[in-house]
Amino acid sequence: MSQTAQVTVPATTANIGPGFDCLGAALTLHNHFTFTPADRLTITITGKEAARLSTGPDNLVYKSYEAFYNQINKPTPPVHIDIDLHVPLARGLGSSSTAIVGGLVGANLLAGSPLNQHQLATLATQLEGHPDNVVPALLGGCQLAVYGTNGPLTICQIPWHESIVPVVAIPDFELATVDARRVLPASYSRADAIFNTAHLGLLTQALTAGKGDWLKTALCDRIHQPYRKTLIPNYDDIHASALATGAWGLVISGAGPTLLALTSPEAVPTVCRTLGSAWQLANIPYTIHQLVIDLNGTQASLLG
Prior knowledge:
By secondary structure, the chain is of the alpha+beta class. It has 2 domains: 4-159 and 293-303, Ribosomal Protein S5, domain 2, CATH 3.30.230.10; 165-290, 2-Layer Sandwich (Alpha-Beta Plaits), CATH 3.30.70.890. It is built from 11 helices and 11 strands. Strands 1, 2, 3, 4, 5, 6 and 11 form a 7-stranded mixed sheet that branches. It has a 4-stranded antiparallel sheet with strand order 8-9-7-10. Helix 1 (60-71) links the parallel strand 3 (42-46) and strand 4 (79-84). It is globular, with a radius of gyration of 19 Å. The relative contact order is 0.19.
């Protein structure tokens, strides 16, 4: 009897200020994938933005499914993939990472789980190009992932203190990662490198200890946010408003345009009420979500 693999993958917020391309956290917003052995490839997609995704072999979920079988040197078996979308596309919440992780984990389950989690994380990083989204999407929590010199991927979980609440403002416009990378400079000064190194070190400690006063400093960045904020209308106004209403800090989630505020539980109602006011004045639709760090990561099971 053939078995069906069910996979649930969380959204992620990457970079978190100074942790460019290496730090990310899983959030309680999920995409769902079902993989059923079939006679030929078919893909069905449900969700608000379903019509925008391919149902052919260039679908990223299938491409990742196929990459898994290439990795283990076995033919790719035909499959029916059902995708239920809840993570918005091209908004800086790791939608592509859910597809990559979902495809790999679904294929791994159907193949009898020949790869362990670290091997899956490494393969997912190779497909995505950097680990900041795919690693927390797979493992959950907040994860720092780096490559050594010609060495394997090293993954370090950063405990996230329960007093730090993530609130996201998701605007109704997109920002492609390729465009967000295009505005970055080709090189940085020594001063900027030192600045980010120091702030990332402080950020890991602030997240673990729940120190809001540390977060106010630690979330500063000179590598990507000063350049990417120019692609997000009213960024400076929203940043100022978040700090004025009690948030410890506000950063660009991933490549944007979603913005992530980190705040205390007491300040959440005010931050949620005012966070997108500058977009409202500019007639830019948006939604606000108070989320929780997803500690479970990707959940998967075999049925049948």
